Amino acid sequence: MSATSGKPRRPDTQGRPRTGSRVAAIQALFQSELTGETAETVIDQFVRHRIGPDAGGYEDGRVPLADVPLFAELARGVARQSESLDAIIAGHLAKDWTVARIDPVLRALLRAAAFELSSGSEPPARVVINEYMDIAHGFFSGDEPRFANGVLDAMARSLRADEFRR
Question: Under CATH, to which class is 17-165 assigned?
Answer without folding.
Answer: mainly alpha
